[in-house]
Amino acid sequence: MTTKKFMFVNRKAPYGTVYALESLEVVLIGAAFEQDVSLAFLDDGVYQLKKGHQTKGIEMKGFEKTYGALDDYDVNKLYVDEESLAARGLTADDLCVPVEVMSRAAIGKLMEEQDVLLSF
Amino acid sequence: MKLAILVNEGPYTHQASDSAYQFTKAALARGHEIFRVFFYHDGVNNATRLTTPPQDDRNIINRWSKLAEEHKLDMVVCVAAAQRRGIVDEGEAKRNGKDATNLAPGFRISGLGQLIEAGIQADRTVVFGD
Amino acid sequence: MLNIVNKSPLDRNTLQTCLDAGTGGAILLIEDGVYAATRGNAFESKLKAVQGNYKLFALGPDLDARGVGDRVSDGVTVVDYAGFVDLVTEYKTCQSWL
């Protein structure tokens, strides 16, 4: 099968809306199709990766663990916007998985190299 | 050119489905092939045949069904998103013990793989959402 | 790359993020995004500043629907849905900044 470069662009926080969770479901399917998958996190999307989700009180399924499992599916290109982290008082140490922190411009350059850009 | 369309929002609340419809119609008129229209998130709500908008309003669902019939469009509703939101065809009703179905003509329920496949096969994938 | 923006820049930071990522190419404003293309809006100068890097487009039917079809900023090209389709085919990829 043809391999294409798929990038998932995440700009929304988790739990307040379903986009982060359902986006992850597509990422896993993309990996199952052996596509070249990467994820970009910008703006409130970086909150998806904030470690220590405890969702018991809101009775919603927590999905922080799924980010940790991405590596098992050979999804290990996670790009996080430096400026978005800084604007939220976060650093890479606050995140639940290892990521590459880079400038917005660098993420923009990576976007240019993709075949398919999916945003939710 | 071969195009894939992703619709992330339901009808009426957001303009996404309207924009996607107008885009799809224009692309067909331009002679392009629509490889697939995929409905995800609340976008699956575009596939319920039980909507009854006021007579002076557009019927978003019927409009998609009609376009699909005229152009043999492949309109796919994500099964996981559909199950969450109660969009049901006969197979799903049987499998999950539901007493009714509501899938509109021209739509079919299938897996997320159909979205990835569309991304692979199409020359361009265009996303409509909020 | 074709950047598609559907939010008003006075409500959300979507267009700002799109500009910061700075991929060049084209920006097509649709839905509430078209307000960015109107004369005298507070974001107009920011959009003017990037005119050298981007071709700027706004969707005519969305402008007209909102009563702003007659106040489109200089340097923004108005297109219809067919023009939207042409832009998608013209650029290798498109990113919808949702």
Q: How are the SSEs placed, and which strands pair?
A:
The complex is a heterotrimer of chains A (120), B (130) and C (98).
Chain A: E1 5-10, H1 19-32, E2 36-41, H2 64-69, E3 78-81, H3 82-87, E4 100-102, H4 104-112, E5 116-119
Parallel strand pairs in A: 1-2, 1-5, 2-3, 3-4
Chain B: E1 2-7, H1 16-29, E2 33-39, H2 60-71, E3 75-78, H3 79-85, H4 90-96, E4 107-110, H5 113-121, E5 124-128
Parallel strand pairs in B: 1-2, 1-5, 2-3, 3-4
Helix pairs in contact in B: 1-2
Chain C: E1 2-5, H1 14-21, E2 25-29, H2 44-49, E3 54-59, H3 60-65, E4 76-79, H4 81-90, E5 94-97
Give structural notes.
The complex is a heterotrimer of chains A (120), B (130) and C (98). Chain A is an alpha/beta fold and 120 residues long. Chain A is built from four helices and five strands, in the order βαβαβαβαβ. Chain A has a single domain (5-119), classed as 3-Layer(aba) Sandwich (Hypothetical Protein Ychn, Chain: A), CATH 3.40.1260. The two termini of chain A are 25 Å apart. Chain B is α/β, with parallel strands linked by helices. Chain B has one domain: Hypothetical Protein Ychn, Chain: A, CATH 3.40.1260. Chain B contains five helices and five strands, in the order E-H-E-H-E-H-H-E-H-E. In chain B, strands 4-3-2-1-5 form a five-stranded parallel beta sheet, sandwiched between helices. In chain B, helix 1 (16-29) links the parallel strand 1 (2-7) and strand 2. In chain B, helix 1 (16-29) runs parallel beside helix 2. The mean pLDDT of chain B is 98. With 98 residues, chain C is of the alpha/beta class. Chain C has a single domain, classed as 3-Layer(aba) Sandwich (Hypothetical Protein Ychn, Chain: A), CATH 3.40.1260.10. Chain C has four helices and five strands, in the order E-H-E-H-E-H-E-H-E. Chain C is globular. Chain C starts with a strand and ends with a strand. Classes of the chains: A alpha/beta (120), B alpha/beta (130), C alpha/beta (98). Chains in contact: A-B, A-C, B-C. The B-C interface holds B 1, 3, 8, 15-16, 19, 22-23, 25-27, 29-30, 32, 123-130 and C 4, 6, 30-31, 61, 80-82, 84-86, 88-89, 93-94, 96, 98.
